[in-house]
Amino acid sequence: MKKTEKRDTFSSKLGVIAATVGSAIGLGNIWRFPYEAGEHGGAAFMLAYIIFVVIIGVPLICSEFLIGRASQCNVHHAFKKLGDARHKWHWLAYLGIISSLMILSFYSVVAGWTMEYCVQAVCGTFAKTTQSGLSEYFNEFTSGTARPVVWTLVFLFANYLILRKGLKNGIERMSNIMTPLLFVLLIAFCINSLCLPNALEGVKFLFVPDFSALTPSVLLGAMGQAFFSLSLGVGTLITYSSYFKKDVKLVKSASIVATLDTAFAILAGLIIFPALFSFGMQPAAGPKLVFEVLPSIFSQMAGGSIWAALFFFLLFIASITSTISMAENSISYFAEEAHMSREKATMLSIGIAMVFGTLCALSFGPLADMKIFGKTVFDLFDYTTANLLMPVCGIFFSIFAGWIMDKKVVRNQLTNDGSFRLPVLRALIVCLRYVAPAAILAVFVFNLIF
Ligand code: PHE
Description:
globular; mainly alpha; 450 residues; binds phenylalanine; 0% strand
């Protein structure tokens, strides 16, 4: 790593929360959570998800935060600096960087869909379309060749334009305004959904668990969703927290991020499922779920096209604050370890995502039959990152913070050099050392055996 450069930091505590929450909140909450919950039995999935957020999510956010802020460098160098360089801890960084580029690739496809839907909403397309028309529209659009690819590339190019300028101001300021706005809008849609006929069925689906539905694959899906939604296990949070100032309280920030992120996911569920049951649709529709259900809700509302356009625009913003955090992971690595200029590092990261993003975008059309392990490229990237790579990295991040790092450094990071008492310190260390790694491992083993 170059030693002469002074590292950037976020300008305020609010900026830290806004950027980290911006990374966490995105398509994972509004697009992925409802479709995963829909496929995995609703309430049982949500219950497992919330338990994983508490026992694995919050401790792991803390572990990434303290690794990042203690090291003040990119994810690769962080492990070299804080661990014993003879041991290969920095290999975790490679795994994290590969995962973040894989996520960036398929995520950009869905973000591209939000752009298409935003434009179509402005043109009033959804106002005139029936339920089956919406389904057809989605299938026709995503199975095409040019449009899904072009939107993916346009979205990635927008990332490039933001990222090459360096980390923050624009993004920090943008997320300060857009994230609260998205929240307000979600509440408005939620109220609207809950007033639809038969809405209670949807609420029950999300909140009344059928424990017999808690199969190993539901547990794996819920754990993967917790990792995905909290941006865990790829090193993104290590990279971001390397830009934190000394006075940021790590555990408090981690708890705020986890709470807000979960609130967004539940709100999204409370929009989708009541509407879904009201319109008599299937919860297990997969990735297309949100894109078919939401426009139906909008078309029932006065001024529906405006609501729809606003919603998809905000979803696009929520996506971009997540994707820049994914890309920042590899950019800081390429720039600091391979001594590239920020411009070149950005070009390389976005370029890689453009190639794989194109393959993912074509997975719904021309490449739908190209299956690897029975999955399309899109599904493969989605499934392996959330359900395998992120949790595996999570085990090791947790072990690294709990066992390998100098105890004094850990304590100092968590209490800002002893400037306040942290009542949960011991419990947190126990979670990092035992509970989180054991829980992740247990879910894997459970899946292999049953
Ligand atoms: N947490 C983001 C979301 O929910 C996705 C993400 C994953 C962001 C990994 C960064 C790293 O949309």
